[in-house]
Amino acid sequence: MRILHIIQKKQLRGAEVFASQLSQHLLALGHTVRIVSLDDGDANLPFSGGVSSLSVQLKKRFWDRAGWKKLADAILEFEPDVVQANAGDTLKYAVFSKILFRWKAPIIFRNASMVSAYIRSRFAKAFNGFLLKRVTHVASVSEASRADLVKTFPFLEKKTTVIPGGIEEKHYTPIAHDPNDVYLVHVGGFSFEKNHRGLLRIFRDVLSVRPTVRMWLVGDGVLRKEIEAYAQELSIAHALQFQGYQPNVLDYISAARVLLLPSIIEGLPGVVMEAFYVRTVVVANRVGGVGELVESGRTGWLIERDDEKEFAKAVLSALDKPEQTALLTERAHALVREKYMNEFLAKRFEEVYQNVVISKR
């Protein structure tokens, strides 16, 4: 098959990285694959075929006829059997380009989050419904994401499949630090979904019991300065290390005793799989598809959203019960090895594409 992936930007964000890794595995399966990026960027994405940028004007996303034409030209030149839209504005561009310029390839949409969390008005729901009615199939990243999507847009019930995101086989070297120091870690962009304020309050409570514990915050984003100021306000800045963006997150996760994920919105977070992969225990909020990975007493600690006190207690339990923690991490490692490696998941995407192509004949 000829498969075209659309990404938002050449950046090392989850959606773009996964689309690139998936494309690389699809190449290995014998398909012809191309990736086009709506916007420019300087990230070196993990796809040997290269990523071409359309350089559209995203601030005109609702009326960018020139951008829609650029996408149509790329599609008409490549003649793909399927087109997959991967997060951001990719679905808008794919749908409007297809309507205006009448290319024929079916659109697959990768739903990687909880759609209802971003629909705050009747107009937003109507507009997203308009886009989704023009999609041939949806690949949702988790059962929770699928259920949320179908509840919001019931007409998608029979054309949505759950295919999780996954991870790659990777080499890693734990970050060197004093063996007497105990580190926790959080990995994620500084956005409201990741709930950094709640994270810092949880860490404050942990620190009050274990004053020598330290935490790495790996990631960057628009809220970083605000969170740095909040750390000063809570008098815990001395115990935090803001690492910014790091290409080697496994080095940090593998060196930490616990990964914390107190998010308020998630699809199926790859960082949890990465922690499972390197045998670092996870304490996470029960949001989105997190509960499909983290099971209390089996693969980690799963906490009800907004219960910060219970979250802190779980972190302390993870630190204080090494034998139990070791058992959890072995189970978690086995789970990610069995179900969440990209090489395996690429074959599931391949099956969806084949079924879509056959149904369109």
From TrEMBL:
Its ancestry begins with:
Bacteria, Pseudomonadati, Bacteroidota, Cytophagia, Cytophagales
- Domain Glycosyl transferase family residues, every copy: 176-332
Q: What protein is this chain from?
A: Glycosyltransferase
Residues in Glycosyltransferase subfamily 4-like N-terminal domain copies: 14-168
